[in-house]
Fold:
Amino acid sequence: MFDGHRQSPTRRIVSLWFPRLASERVLRRRAVAGPFAITIKEKNADRIYCLNAEAEQAGLCRGMPFSDARAFCCELESRVANTYADHHMLLMLRRWALRYCPWVGLEGHDGLTLDVTGSAHLFGGEALLLADLRGRLARAGFSVCVGLGDTRGAAWALARHGEGVAPPNQPLEALSQLPVAALRIETKTDVALQRLGLRTIGALVNAARPPLARRFGKDLLMRLDQALGVQPEEITPLAEPPQYAVRMTLPEPIGFYADVMAGTERLLAQLCAKLAAHDVGARVLCLSLRRVDGAPQDIELRLARPLQDAARILPLFQRGIGAVDAGFGIDQLRLSARSIEKIPAQQLSHMASSGRKDQLDDLLTRLGARIGLENIQRFLPADSHIPERGFILAAAAFSEPSQAWTRTQPRPLCLFSPEAIVGHGPNPPKRFRWRRMLLTTGRAVGPERIMPEWWLEDENWRSGLRDYWCVDTCEGRRLWLFYTPQNPAWFVQGEFA
Structure:
């Protein structure tokens, strides 16, 4: 008799452990014939972070002080750890593992977890799947320990303490002889259990649960139940990053400016909808136009501010599209956001308007398309009382205007390197020659004494302190002069508007 109820398949989990991920990542690019180790600084001391098989055979181990390792093995070669690059490599391996199943998650900093339920038959069974996995990783230069079981805990334990396969619905048969440390418990709990004589998972299963719960808490029994499948444990796969790109394939080639702009407008609407859904804005856009002859033409648009407004972005493409050579026609358009930035939430109010700021940003984008965004700069205040160090130049597209200009004394609009003039005494000269002009002092305000920053080496301030004066000349020039008492001399350094 036919039974309409289908029994769900037994869940099968694969755990991959890469014990030499950091060292093998480096050795894949530069092979070393002999012992090799990766070092990391811990508590003001360099220690072994990862090592290859030759280093382990020489008696070295993880956590060992690097100085001791060099004493034991004088031919040891080493590199400094790069945990960011190691994590990036693990993410690449995770993406590669998606060929075996759609559910792949990270397990610590050196492992992966795969839910191969229902996908093993695509490779001819679990044995062939694991063989294919091992072979591909070996050819790529990675050592891997593999565990397969009904639960995540069982697979983790087998990968790191047994490297085997647990039969379906019989996890205890494969885990009973493994040490209690395979349950992902803390080191102090592992030591305490061994002192009680509970050294294996099988011995822990046969022990009374109430005394264990009172002494070690619920975490120990939870890990045990998760490994045996009594308590479920989910695998959380990493979400794929969103792809901010849209494409349009045309049934007939186009070549007119208006047609390309119309297609770009449709693509912009789709792309900006994606950007708005993730609260991000595009900073660099690329419009790729594929001609009928296969020659692509790219139009890159760098924005002064991250945007997600299609109506504001579309006019900025006019100049680039107008210069396109369509040839015999364009049959495909692709628009992608090469660089994105988070757009903070803004308080909406009928009293506030950002129209003028938006116009300025659009103007910066248009000018930046011609001369480069980095060449449009603004002044920002700097924390220094030295005149020439009291400001910095920053790209206007990548900075915000500052209102922190707190100068109590006037500063000239134009600053230049000090230019010597003839003068005597601490008071400004009544008549002096500057840039081939004979000037007469009409009014002088000062002095303003400025001390050098002794903690910085500056050749221009080796003459010591300076006394600055604002001098109005009878000829209409308003100059900024200073006098150096320690080495008597007069200089002109700026001119007011």
Q: What stands out?
A: The mean pLDDT is 86. The domain at 245-342 is CATH 3.30.1490.100 (Dna Ligase; domain 1). The chain has 15 helices and 19 strands.
